[in-house]
Amino acid sequence: MTKPTSKWNLLARLLGRSQSPLVSQIFTQAFGQPLLVHPQMGEQVVGAYLSGAVEARPPTLVIGELAPATKDEFGKVVTPARNVAVINVSGGLVNRYEGDLCDPGPLSYQELRSSYDRARTDSTIETIVMRIESPGGMGAALFDLTDHIYATRGEKRVIAVIDDYAYSAAYAIAASCGEIWITRTGGGGSVGVIAYHIDQSAFDAKLGVRITAIYSGAHKNDMSPHAPLDDKTRAWLQERMDSMRTLFAASVARYRGMDVDAVLATEAQVYQGEDCVRIGFADRIGTYYELMEHLETSVEPASGGDSTKFVKGDRVEIKEPHDPAHKFGTIEIVSTETPYGVIVDGMEDMGVHKWYVDSELVAVEENASDDDDTNAGARKKKPMKMSAGLLPVVASGPSPEVALAEFVSRVSISTLPDAVARALIKRGPANQTADTAIAYASSVRDACFAAGVESLAADYVAANTDIAAVRAQLIDAKATGEVEIVTLPPQAATAQKVESATDIYNRRRAAAAGSGHHQRQ
């Protein structure tokens, strides 16, 4: 009997699918990589794609008409058609498109971003709806997509409808939208990370196959499927999982206006319908069809404020706030399509967090009594929330409070991981603009991530360590196995020379050659 000569041949034979690039791509991305996916459902989805059970998926972008254009007796358009873009988020999710005409493969973040940007920049579309039914998918590039949606969701109304489940990576996409609807039986959450390692060494033995890896670099053969997972590699992978989970929870907290500890406390639990609304993972119960009806009947075309109830700068009370502590706000945008973008008190750092229509808002009387505690929060915006102990002392300046608030606000809405952003806020401006400071912190984080010690990035940033010193220390740490945070750049640390990677390699070769020479003697 001829034995399979490749694990892809073997995989295709076992699962009944031809040996195609899609099989190898999915296998490579599903095993040994951080996945933001519901565990049991994720296994089923991967198996379905590999076995050929999934051959098609719904179109990613569908544009529908909420109301037709109206014309006068001469055929001139009086009011334009009101359109909605529905983006279907279905099945397992990957970073890049990997299918072809006959084999579409899983939905990619690349496709989702392209569809979202097309709808976002189309002036004929007033609302974007993400219709989600997905167990999640890859961690790679997910937060690039969700941060992009979060940063641009104030441009028009962006609604996620969980129909009927959005777990892990799919929930991150939902959370980045301005509103979340969920069906009564729908499920959301699973804010956690998982990875799979396949140990097929016993299977190799049954086949009479012994795999020998010849490699250079201590970690080059980590995660090999032809050997059990060793303790060091397991610990490294666990640290990677924990770091990504922290990033995941911090992102959800920022998107939803929640406390990051509250998100972490869910421990990747999934929640159904009303429970999802109760903990803050969704805004209201409703089906996809109820949402469409809501959009058709409740959104009234406006004309820059002339025919709307409110204008920019008006103080309003939200009739049914998600959080009673955040029920007042200020009209920031009066759209010609979807009326009001509101900046909610206490959530100013999030910008336009929600979109509302006339029936969802109540005007706040400007002449309310100062003694009326009920309206005290309605008369003026609350200051931006800042955690105790995070505000650095600012030296002299014409308006340090304003400068500091601007710095904190810019850092808070940046794409920096939560721990690094907090460290940068703690460090303060340090004579840098917000953009320069964010770029510095991002460089530090990238260097630490590349060295496999991303958790150290926040410490380096808090200590204001020069980026050159960071890189030099990380190179040295690879050789010694130890990391010590030193804030001086290499040229200022004259006590000892910082070795380059080449120096370390040459020193080791010389030591090895010397050891071999003594043994021969």
What can you see in these coordinates?
This protein is an alpha/beta fold. The protein has three domains: 7-285, 2-enoyl-CoA Hydratase, Chain A, domain 1 (Alpha-Beta Complex), CATH 3.90.226.10; 300-379, SH3 type barrels (Roll), CATH 2.30.30; 400-506, no CATH class. 39% of the residues lie in helices and 17% in strands. Strands 2, 5, 8, 10, 11, 12, 13 and 14 form an eight-stranded mixed β-sheet that branches. Strand 16 (328-334) and strand 17 form a beta hairpin. Helix 4 (109-121) runs parallel beside helix 5, helix 5 packs parallel to helix 6 (169-175) and helix 15 packs parallel to helix 17 (467-480). It starts with 6 loop residues before the first helix and ends with a helix. 34% of the residues are buried. Residues 1-28, 48-56, 300-307, 368-398, 483-496 and 517-521 have low confidence and may be disordered.
Count helical runs. Answer: 18
Low-confidence stretches: 1-28, 48-56, 300-307, 368-398, 483-496, 517-521
Residues in helix, %: 25-40%
CATH superfamily of the largest domain: 2-enoyl-CoA Hydratase, Chain A, domain 1
Find the CATH topology of the largest domain.
Answer: 2-enoyl-CoA Hydratase, Chain A, domain 1
In what range is the share of β-strand residues? 15-25%
Per CATH, which architecture of the largest domain?
Answer: Alpha-Beta Complex
Rg, rounded, reads: 27 Å
Q: At the first level of CATH, what is the class of the largest domain?
A: Alpha Beta
Structural class: alpha/beta
* Number of individual domains: 3
What's the count of strands? Answer: 19
